[in-house]
From TrEMBL:
<feature type="domain" description="NIPSNAP">
    <location>
        <begin position="4"/>
        <end position="104"/>
    </location>
</feature>
<dbReference type="InterPro" id="IPR011008">
    <property type="entry name" value="Dimeric_a/b-barrel"/>
</dbReference>
<dbReference type="InterPro" id="IPR051557">
    <property type="entry name" value="NipSnap_domain"/>
</dbReference>
<dbReference type="InterPro" id="IPR012577">
    <property type="entry name" value="NIPSNAP"/>
</dbReference>
<dbReference type="Pfam" id="PF07978">
    <property type="entry name" value="NIPSNAP"/>
</dbReference>
<protein>
    <submittedName>
        <fullName>NIPSNAP family protein</fullName>
    </submittedName>
</protein>
<comment type="similarity">
    <text>Belongs to the NipSnap family.</text>
</comment>
Length: 106
């Protein structure tokens, strides 16, 4: 399994609106397409207004196919357009993480 690790930083005062929209609209769509939701984590100490989202995939090809299907979904397009109109996300970073040979996901 590979893990996609996405970090989002939000403009102060915008996170709660994004989080509610994501939980009620975006996450159900992503779960339909991306399948293996590993979690969403919120910063408490350190770099504030930051979340980390993690999704598991069998391979890069699996990730590519699943994300292409999601991007083609009209429900996702409507959700993401609504997210951009919130003007909440200040920065975004995505990494693909491979497990170490001794990791349970290897």
């Amino acid at each position: 399994m590979i893990v996609e690790h996405r970090t989002y930083t939000f403009r102060p005062g915008t996170f709660d609106g994004w989080l509610k929209k994501y939980e009620t609209e975006g996450l159900p769509i992503q779960k339909r397409h991306l399948n293996r939701f590993l979690g969403l984590y919120v910063s408490e100490i350190g770099h504030l207004h930051t979340t980390v989202l993690m999704w598991g995939y069998d391979s890069l090809a699996d990730r590519e196919a699943r994300r292409a299907a999601m991007y083609a979904d009209p429900d996702w397009q409507a959700f993401i357009n609504g997210v951009w109109s919130l003007n909440a996300i200040q920065s975004q970073d995505a990494m693909i993480m491979n497990p170490a040979p001794f990791s349970p996901g290897a």
